[in-house]
Specification:
Ribosomal Protein S5, domain 2; four-stranded mixed sheet; 3 helices; globular; alpha+beta
Length: 122
């Protein structure tokens, strides 16, 4: 699967997702979810992994792990939706299974919050 059609590209897109929609936080990750466009556009995802997480090697590893956790959710997210996952300090020490549980839970909560804000979702 190619990620290019599922990526958020510009800072404006990231800001739009973070400022609108539903947000849910867990101990090591924050998930922001919103609808950018109405239509059949594929869901899009962006990752924010700051230098507080670690050096470039650690940040890239965290991004790869988050990407693999989000990949199965792309089929279930509403068309036109966008997700930003923001890593918090300590995420690099989390076991993959625990991180997956946190992201899955936070994404489900963000979807519920988005649905409550805009009934047209799902």
């Amino acid at each position: 699967m190619t990620w290019s059609r599922h990526r958020l590209h510009t800072g404006d897109e990231f800001r739009a997702v973070i400022r609108g929609g539903g947000r849910s936080a867990r101990s090591h990750v924050v998930v922001h979810l919103t609808l950018l466009t109405q239509g059949e556009e594929a869901p899009r995802v962006g990752f924010v992994v700051s230098k507080k997480i670690g050096n470039a090697v650690v940040r890239n590893r965290v991004t790869r792990r988050l990407r693999e956790i989000v990949r199965p959710h792309l089929a279930t997210l509403p068309p036109g939706s966008a997700v930003v996952l923001r890593a918090l300090p300590g995420i690099d020490e989390q076991p993959f299974a625990a991180l997956r549980t946190d992201v899955d839970s936070a994404l489900a909560t963000a979807e519920r919050k988005l649905a409550a804000r805009s009934p047209s979702v799902r």
